[in-house]
Amino acid sequence: MPSDFGAPDILYALTGLVIVICWAFLILHPNRSSRFITVPKFGVPLAFGLIYAGVMMAKFAGSGGGYGSIAEVRALFVHDDILLAGWLHYLAYDFFIGVWIAEQADRMGLSRQIQAVILVVAFMFPPMGLALFLITRGATHGLRRITA
Questions:
Q1: For residue 3, is pLDDT > 60?
Q2: Angle at CA 90, nearest 5°, toward 132 and 22?
Q3: What do you get for the CA distance between the two ends of the chain, in Å?
Q4: Nearest by Cα to 89 from 19, 143, 22
């Protein structure tokens, strides 16, 4: 159901812009340990999480949906407010995992070009990006053992 005043549409657009900027900085910024990255690393998931919590606390009980079946989830996401909250859930967790991938890749000494590919995949298709990173990390550790 559409919400009042178009607020979900406005929040969707604003949070989408914020997350694209954050991912761009994560992928392109050469010094991930700086405050420049630290603030979005925690601030964006925190802000998105608080918006999520507020929406879910206000709208979940009256939504007629739930998590017990696919039909209940479908009923839940018919509401634009809750659909936005679900989207923010994805954005917050996906960015947090992207930061984790970047930090781990830096510790491993993985080249920035390989990191960029993995992070772009993680941005567009998060579970595939995480899987790609884990496979790359496993292969890198395996090669180090063989050559050591």
A1: no
A2: 75
A3: 60
A4: 19
pTM to 2 decimal places: 0.84
> Are 27 and 120 contacting, i.e. CB atoms less than 8 angstroms apart?
yes
pLDDT at 147 (0 to 100): 58
What CA–CA distances, in Å, run from 18 to 92, 107, 113, 131, 145? 11, 26, 24, 25, 41
pLDDT value for 100: 93
Calculate the alpha carbon distances from 26 to 54, 108, 109, 143 in Å: 27, 17, 16, 27
Angle between helices 112-124 and 80-108 (to 10 degrees): 160
From 29-43, 71-85, 130-144, the region with the lowest mean pLDDT: 29-43
Length of the chain: 148
Q: What is the DSSP string of 1-45?
A: -PPGGGHHHHHHHHHHHHHHHHHHHHHH-S-TTSHHHHHHHHHHH
Contact 82, 63 (CB under 8 A): yes
Beta-carbon count within 10 A of 120 CB: 14
SS3 state at 148: coil
pLDDT tens per residue across span 70-90: 999 999 999 999 999 999 999
